């Protein structure tokens, strides 16, 4: 990232403006993506020196990623700007907790935090709450619903006419029209019949004590590393020991000691010894 690009990025506000969302999206998309080395240097400055400028630059470089994720939640009928704002909160939490020693990119770590904040916002603002909350909205709701029975989607002129008749603004008419055109959804079921494209229901995002994004990332990394180590360790065994372990521990229908003893022409006790020796070699190989 050049000095000029860095200065332009630092001038970008982290808050999402409500009046010109398109300009905000263009601005965040203009911020260059960090290289591996740039990201590591910034992360180390934040982690070891608590450099807040480094934290800000890491956040700014990933705002475009938040926009990308937030767009996938617009089917809930919630404002994109609000979804982006909540995602930005998750991104900042991820940057604060990011450990450069783990050897993963920030984007892989932050996705869990970003989605967690957006999910929380969706839960609190799902359409089952209220459609009309103010007196003007209730008046508009009942009058507009009656007119919608004979009208398609309102044109600009029709929206202006309705607004003049009811003493509200055209923007309020359009907003209420969008609410009336939205759908109600089951709290614990998919929101459409297409399983491949179904939008998860709010029940899928209820709080769980074991759903901390940092823990999930750590557990996923541990499981992947353990699987690789186990696979490599098994390949160091001789063919007979490997066959005994696979059939005693990994097969769907596990073989007995006597079955293996009959096949290899030795005693069941000898098979047990070979099995224990193989397990010991695996533990030593993984520990090493």
UniProtKB/TrEMBL annotation:
Primary residence: cytoplasm
Annotated spans, Sigma-70 factor domain-2: 58-127
GO cellular component, as recorded: cytoplasm
Domain RNA polymerase sigma-70, first and last residues per copy: 82-95, 256-282
Top-level taxonomic group: Bacteria
Family indicated by similarity: Belongs to the sigma-70 factor family. RpoH subfamily.
Function summary: Sigma factors are initiation factors that promote the attachment of RNA polymerase to specific initiation sites and are then released. This sigma factor is involved in regulation of expression of heat shock genes.
Subunit structure: Interacts with the RNA polymerase core enzyme.
Protein name as annotated: RNA polymerase sigma factor RpoH
């Amino acid at each position: 990232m050049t000095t000029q690009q860095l200065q332009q990025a630092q001038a970008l506000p982290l808050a999402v403006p409500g009046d010109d969302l398109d300009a905000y999206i263009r601005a965040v998309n203009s911020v260059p993506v960090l290289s591996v080395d740039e990201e590591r240097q910034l992360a180390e400055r934040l982690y070891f020196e608590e450099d807040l400028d480094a934290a800000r630059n890491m956040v700014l470089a990933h705002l475009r990623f938040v926009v990308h994720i937030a767009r996938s939640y617009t089917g809930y009928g919630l404002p994109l700007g609000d979804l982006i704002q909540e995602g930005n909160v998750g991104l900042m939490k991820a940057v604060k907790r990011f450990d450069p020693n783990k050897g993963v990119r920030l984007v892989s770590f932050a996705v869990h935090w970003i989605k967690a904040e957006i999910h929380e916002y969706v839960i609190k603002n799902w359409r089952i709450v209220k459609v009309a909350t103010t007196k003007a909205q209730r008046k508009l709701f009942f009058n507009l619903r009656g007119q919608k029975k004979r009208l398609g989607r309102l044109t600009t002129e029709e929206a202006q006419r309705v607004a003049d008749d009811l003493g509200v603004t055209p923007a309020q008419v359009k907003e209420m029209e969008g609410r009336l055109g939205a759908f109600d959804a089951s709290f614990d079921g998919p929101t459409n019949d297409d399983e491949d494209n179904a939008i998860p229901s709010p029940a899928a995002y209820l709080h769980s004590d074991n759903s901390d994004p940092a823990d999930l990332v750590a557990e996923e990394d541990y499981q992947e590393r353990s699987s690789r180590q186990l696979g490599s360790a098994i390949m160091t065994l001789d063919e007979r020991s490997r066959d005994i372990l696979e059939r005693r521990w990994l097969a769907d229908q596990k073989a007995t000691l006597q079955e293996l003893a009959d096949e290899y022409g030795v005693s069941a006790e000898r098979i047990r010894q070979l099995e224990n020796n193989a397990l010991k070699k695996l533990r030593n190989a993984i520990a090493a």
